[in-house]
Input
Amino acid sequence: MTLTSNHLQAFGTLAAALAALIALFVAFDQGRVMRAQQHASVMPILDAEVQLNDNGATVELAVSVRNDGVGPALVESVRILSNGVPMQTWDQFGDVIFPQALRDVDVFNGGTIRGALGAGREQPVVSFVWNRDDTNEQAFVELFERIVATGTHIQIETCYCSVFDQCWLAEPGETARAGLVRSCPHAGDDVYAQLSSSRTLAPAEADR
Output
């Protein structure tokens, strides 16, 4: 077979097309890697924590959320659950979690958790403080056993997004990893707003 100028031109055209296709694939792959690096460089990781702090004269139950990632977390919702059931009212929270002797909380604090939470920052969700006396000492032991021994009485579920609109749902469980979701569910009121707006007086408070 004799190669003519037409054959050489066809080969040249094919080689140019293959080179262009390879360049396009390399550019696409580099773009994918760059996007992945960009997302990883601002990825938030939320970790919820429940603490029972014995300060001698007082005992505090505190729930907080910390961002252990490298980028800001846009927190859409935080839910407190007990044995998988969402705690939506003060009475429900008290009935399920607090021993009867601790239904009368001396100090109730919280803050709005929705919004941006910077990398390395921690935000309190809600806290309950009781003054210690002879009548409630055993109740603190019971509260400690409920929270620490079982690990199921208080669980935290968070849904948050990165600045690139990637969203994760972190469900309760020590071994559970946050899973990617298309979007976070409608948050409504934050935890503190829910509990404080629905709070009813405990019997001891009503008598004051």
About this structure: The mean pLDDT is 76.
